[in-house]
Design brief:
alpha/beta; Rossmann fold; six-stranded parallel beta sheet; 6 strands; 20% strand
């Protein structure tokens, strides 16, 4: 699918869309190089989550675990304190870059009739990139919130711009958080 600027945005008429919140975990906010535009990122993600909840759109929280800074069960592994999953939200645990690799995500999306994904989270050039690429390979329509992902690299802004461009060229639709509509936002 080409990156079409005029493609329809998610709306309340769409029962086939889900919001992915990838690896927005406390430990990533504790790095020596801070998350770029952390406050703006969290504001955009929490606004999108609230809007998705109001519209009945599934929200999928993805939590990464490793043997380094995100050890499962530790405080650093927990979701950021600004995120408050509802009982109806899905939580997917992963150990690889892509949220699809060795997780039940694809099966859950198929069971829910989901064919379109709105993607946010951390980190741009890691898990966000890997998940977007795998989602496209699996046939999902992917909307990357271009101001809804970030990283803790010293050249974070350039990485965000670079990967927005590369993913856009690869068929991922790019939208600003304010352009995403679930229901009557």
């Amino acid at each position: 699918m080409d990156n079409q600027v005029d493609a329809p945005l998610p709306s309340d008429r769409d029962a086939d869309v889900a919001l992915l919140v990838i690896d927005v975990q406390q430990g990533l906010f504790n790095k020596s190089t801070p998350i770029y535009n952390a406050q703006g990122l969290l504001d955009n993600i929490t606004d999108l989550v609230e809007c998705a909840h109001r519209a009945g759109v599934p929200v999928v929280y993805v939590q990464h675990a490793n043997q380094g800074s995100l050890v499962e069960g530790t405080q650093d592994w927990q979701l950021h304190p600004r995120l408050h999953p509802l009982d109806t939200d899905w939580v997917i645990h992963k150990r690889h870059g892509s949220a699809f690799q060795a997780t039940p995500l694809k099966a859950r999306l198929e069971a829910g009739g989901i064919t379109r994904l709105v993607v946010t989270g951390l980190v741009t050039h890691g898990c966000v990139r890997a998940t977007c690429l795998d989602a496209r390979k699996l046939g999902y329509q992917v909307v990357l919130v271009k101001d809804g992902h970030s990283n803790f690299h010293k050249q974070a802004a350039q990485l965000i711009e670079e990967w927005n461009h590369k993913l856009g060229e690869g068929g991922v639709e790019l939208r600003a958080a304010q352009e995403i509509r679930f229901g009557d936002r």
